[in-house]
Amino acid sequence: MIAIPRNPSLCPGVKFPKDPAIVVVCPTNSIEQQMEQNMAKLGIHALMINSDTVTAARIRSEDLWKKAREGISMLILGPEQLISKGFQDLLKCEAFYDRVCDLGVDKIHLLAMWGLGFRKAFTQIGFMWARFCAGIPIIGLTATLLADPTIADAIFDFPILFRTLYSGIDGLYFPELVWVLRNSDKTLIFGATISLVFRIKIYLDSQCAEDVDRDLRIRVYHSINWPEENLETIELFKSNPGCQIIVCTNGLAQGNDISAVRTVIQVGEPESAEMFIQKPGRAGLNAENPRAIFYISALWVAKAIKIISQSDAENAVMRTAVL
């Protein structure tokens, strides 16, 4: 984009502004800093704007948002800065607005993993993109998806939602799940232990109307059941409209393609990255608007917020202590 305005013969018929710019959204300050340094090595004028650089610039009486208006080829922001008043005012500047050619998002998988959890700003990227000049492309990058197209489909073909579990996972009450009984979606509810599966089943039974056949509507699937009973559960779920919910352990997360599933729910943190991928993949084979919902305990949400708010040095000390 920088080269073509200087030498149109490189790509006849394609036009870019004389001073083109790209806006890049990064998830952390350290990634922003690395990108700014790498761009400088390539001779590209990049500017990183985050809470730290804004504060430092203010001390030296410099306005980074004004600096970004002209001469900066790559503006590097976090999602919080993208939705800030500073950036909104920058878009109102015609000199900047007219030269923006692209919006890039690094680590785009975090839109699902963080955006619907503790960093809501990630979910606003699409809305901010709509404020750019019409036709501006958006490019999303990630290097952390497994090289299996079915896994990418499992992540991006339907929403993955993160909700806070305020009930104690060792308790007997799960009011966050009552909404499942208010609709007819075919639903899998995963619990990490057989004990949790039983407690969720008992609680949901207690919330059903008196005239409901609880043992048909809400089934359980786990290794203590006889194999014939588990097979009967799957067949009822597939063929009987009255069988709506299976509360299950991980045994149903692998290799069981039940096409009727619309909603997959995990109560508690996924045991591994593999389980994070596998469980959402149980939904959506033939269902309309499938979805996966992870109920994460308030304690773990607080821990995650603490981790991302710490400096790289503090996190390195924590990792060393764990090892």
Automatic annotation (TrEMBL):
EC number in record: 5.6.2.4
One of the GO biological process terms: double-strand break repair via homologous recombination
Domain of life: Eukaryota
Keyword Hydrolase: yes
Keyword Flavoprotein: no
Matches recorded under Pfam families: Helicase_C
SUPFAM superfamilies per the UniProt record, alphabetical: P-loop containing nucleoside triphosphate hydrolases (SSF52540)
Keywords of this entry: Hydrolase
Domain Helicase C-terminal: 173-323
Gene Ontology, cellular component aspect: chromosome; cytoplasm; nucleus
Class of enzymatic activity (EC top level): isomerase
Swiss-Prot/TrEMBL catalytic activity: Couples ATP hydrolysis with the unwinding of duplex DNA by translocating in the 3'-5' direction
InterPro entries linked: Helicase_C-like, P-loop_NTPase
GO molecular function, one term: hydrolase activity
Entry similarity comment: Belongs to the helicase family. RecQ subfamily.
Protein's name according to its UniProt entry: DNA 3'-5' helicase
Provenance organism: Mycena metata
